[in-house]
Amino acid sequence: MTATARIHPSDPARPAPAAPASDTVAGYHAFTLGQFSFARDEYFVTVTWPAKGHRQSHTMSADAFLRALMRDVAWNFFYGLVNFDAVFGTRNLYGRVEIFAGRYNEAIHGAGLSYVEAFDSTDAMARFKEILADWVNAGFDPFAAPAETENSPFGEKNGNNLAAIDRFRIATKRMTGLPGDSPLRSDADGFPVNRAFADVDQGEPEIEVEPGFEGEVHAFNLFKYLSRSDVTWNPSVTSVCGRSLFCPTTEEYILPIIHGNDRVEWFLQLSDEITWEVADRETGRPRSRLTMKAGDVAAMPADIRHQGFSKKRAMLLVWENATADLPQRYERGELKPWPVDF
Ligand code: PHB
Ligand code: FE
User: Fold this and answer.
1) Does ligand 1 lie within 6 Å of residue 253's CB atom?
2) pTM of the predicted model, to two decimals?
3) How confident is the model over 279-331, as pLDDT tens digits?
4) Residues forming beta bridges with residue 48, ordered by sequence position
5) Looking at the CA of 68, which ligand is closest?
6) Which of 9, 84, 161, 262 could form a disulfide with 68 if both were Cys (CB 3.0 to 4.6 A apart)?
7) Residue 342 C-alpha to ligand 1 middle, in angstroms?
């Protein structure tokens, strides 16, 4: 865990008002979204929500909150649950989004202190983007590995880093490197080889096409492409085959969210090593701990939450199934939460 839960019954004599957007602390604006309030100070982000006639609060380290918020924004709320930590997060209803506090935390939910509010995704996204723009200081890149960004998530407000937070998920239509599709990476385009991948072969495959098939055959060096990724924990589509999406990514330090799946995902470990903590999606009770080494393949079930840890930058291929009604089919019990029986 990268954040500390501080749940306390609030003092009825001092009900926390929903913070108007004009409030500032240490130069940072406070925000509201529905019944939620969000405020940050030099070190922390505090979220409050109504429960049992009072306001509950939860505090996270500002860097952990901003790294999670960055993914939620860039991934348009992703698949299923994006838990910022064990308390706060979002659930994608694809068009609508639920924002929750304590709902998937067994103790808080069991005590009747959780809160969920649904929004149109565009409204919630607009507010999340405002928070990100205001709270990310100059020099802090929430997508970068901690060793590769300045240690400036903390302190009083100091400028912004709009260029870093406007970097969105790469949308590939068919395959990276095809004419008119998402581009390959090179020194000239500002994507040097990462320090961790200096030994990765930079050659490209030779493509020999039968006459008549020109423009239909394509290949590229995925290891070279990934060796030049400037971000961490950001799966981006490199090939689309029907509803099958290959979403490779490079991983260093800790996945800033705890992802609650709404479908099965496959992981192919392409290099190095990542350890996954896997827990029950609903309660957070631990289910397994899995260390994947280069060449390992794992299926992450549809009813879990998981978080990855990578001590050296590693290449991972996340294989997603974008079939539209999958979450409903799992919820109705039509599909088992695991993909194969041995
Ligand atoms: C996942 O939740 O499956 C996931 C998210 C981000 C990554 C890797 C895996 O970088
Ligand atoms: Fe996942």
Assistant:
1) no
2) 0.92
3) 999 999 999 999 999 999 999 999 999 999 999 999 999 999 999 999 999 99
4) 37, 57
5) 1
6) 84
7) 25
